Amino acid sequence: MSQEIIQEISPDKRALTGFHPAIVWTCRVMTGIGAVVLAIMMFLSVADICGRNFFHKPIDGTYEIVSLMVVLVGCLGLGYCQLVKGNIMIDVVTKRLSPRWQAILNVISYLISIAVCGLVCWQISLRMHDYMLKQLGGKTITLGIVLWPFMFIMAVCFAWVTMIFCIDLYHAFREVLKR
To answer: What is the total count of domains within the chain?
Structure first.
């Protein structure tokens, strides 16, 4: 029973075969960086809690730093999650459809995903440009950390996952035409 659950939730290595090794490597590096940021975020949170409870001296700006780190962790893992098809998929209805109709629904979902991720990337880029040019705003309140570098990373990550969706769309189109 537990082996079946582990196999069900572990990423399918066959999903990586349709991608160039450089794409897979880049996704793994981005996810690795996200994991390191997550570990730093964990240690910072623990240090802040210990400092607050035991020494009555919390770390100033922990909330802001952790908030920015959450953005990095979430965005850096997007590409790898899509690469291994680790997104949640509710297939109660689609499982009963023919493989051709499943592929057609994949094409539709990839088109929607490309549109949404492309739009998010574009809007983040516009806001980032505004923050780079303005002297006021675009900084955290307590520590004054400039926000645009984090927005740049977000834009790059969303552009990256958009590219992966485009590759998946290509494979889905081939699947529709093959059947």
So the answer is: 1
